[in-house]
Amino acid sequence: MQTPKLSVSNITMKFRTRRGAEVTAVDNLSLEVADREFVSIVGPSGCGKSTLLRVIAGLVEPNAGEVRLDGRQIDGPSAARGMVFQTYTLFPWLTVRGNVEFGSRLRLMPAAERTQVAQNYIEMIGLKNFEHHYPKELSGGMMQRVAIARALANDPEVLLMDEPFGALDAQTRIIMQELLVNLWQRTPKTIIFVTHDIDEAIFLSERVYIMTARPGRIKQVLTVDLPRPRNLDLITLPIFLDMKRAVLDSIKEEGLKAINMLNSER
Fold first, then answer.
1. What is the largest CA-CA distance in the chain?
2. Residue 234 in 3-state DSSP?
3. Does pTM surpass 0.85?
């Protein structure tokens, strides 16, 4: 593997419950992501996937370990790391164009350039002629397209995506997966994608990190050696099904551990 674009080294993240008990969400976790690589993170519920992403984003500070981007330690949020959440975090008082332009406006980009950049991404996500619509006038899939365009228009070096399609219906989710693959191939970014959907992780990614039950650690790394460009015909191929079975077996084992852990804590 080439010199990593982003490295996570020995991250430990703890928090306290309402009753005051200390819980370790992520324990001594390390991973690396190459420049322009697309990786996904999967694992049983509660294993710390989203916590890890928030640490990488600089939204929370770990108890131990460090995250480095191009060798520089991350010590807080930055425009170099864009974030897309599962919920549609659009500004309801702004139009589609206003939302996509938001980051560029904060960076004081000249108005004409800002509009052109926004328009390019609006067209990439298939929302031409919706520039002046407000979020309340859009479907869930359309709103998430706008959220992705807004993140990309800010030109981050790394795009962090936390279950971005989790709230969508199955048909819209498939459309969004294909859209994201096409966007990534046209505007290559380093992407770290958290998901519960194993098909989604394998279809999108070049590597899949599988986490253990809490406390979250890296259990296994799956290299997805499938050709690009990809289409949904891949999910019926024997090699794809073999990968899916391997990930399912690994996560199932961790899921049983998580259930046993919860039962022992009651």
1. 60
2. helix
3. yes
